[in-house]
């Protein structure tokens, strides 16, 4: 089996660059990457102005058996860059985390995705509800 890795790049903030990594099986479709961009775009107004987020249009394929790179995947159109528009200052070590939850079960445990750190976050925007709507 082959996993497809998509690395979403965070740039133009103190401490940058940053990355959020997502895995797909099989490779992501254009619609899936566009949905990932929509999620991050919903956060643009609460992230500091100047920060950019880029969802890739291509990435690595990884052999699940060996962990080695086995190829490259791509889609027809790379999603557009997201430009943050939030105001205020923020601490470089501040942030938030998204827990990706599912209804699936594996064995006797609930299947969950990895926690995705989202940073930086403006202190004036430190509210829990702002991540719930885009993640729904």
Can you offer a commentary on this structure?
The structure is a single chain. 12% of the residues lie in helices and 40% in strands. The protein has 136 residues and is mainly beta. The protein has one domain (2-135). Strand 7 and strand 8 (109-118) form a beta hairpin. It is globular and about 45 Å long.
Mean pLDDT equals 79
Unreliable segments (pLDDT under 50, ≥5 consecutive)?
116-132
Total count of helical runs of at least 4 residues: 2
Look at the helices and sheets and give the structural class: mainly beta
Silhouette: globular
Give the helix/strand layout.
Blueprint: E1 2-11, E2 18-24, H1 30-41, E3 52-54, E4 58-63, E5 69-74, E6 82-83, E7 96-106, E8 109-118, H2 132-135
Antiparallel strand pairs: 1-2, 1-3, 1-4, 3-6, 4-5, 7-8
């Amino acid at each position: 089996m082959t996993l497809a890795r998509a690395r979403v790049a965070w740039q133009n903030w103190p401490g940058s660059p940053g990355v959020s990594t997502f895995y797909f099986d099989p490779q992501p479709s254009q619609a899936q990457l566009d949905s990932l961009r929509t999620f991050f775009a919903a956060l643009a107004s609460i992230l500091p102005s100047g920060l950019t987020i880029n969802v890739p249009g291509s990435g690595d394929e990884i052999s699940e058996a060996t962990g080695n790179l086995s190829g490259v995947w791509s889609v027809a159109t790379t999603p557009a860059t997201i430009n943050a528009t939030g105001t205020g200052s923020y601490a470089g070590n501040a942030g938030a985390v998204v827990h990706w939850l599912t209804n699936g079960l594996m064995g006797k445990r609930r299947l969950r995705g990895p926690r995705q750190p989202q940073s930086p976050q403006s202190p004036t925007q430190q509210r829990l509800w702002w991540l719930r709507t885009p993640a729904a």
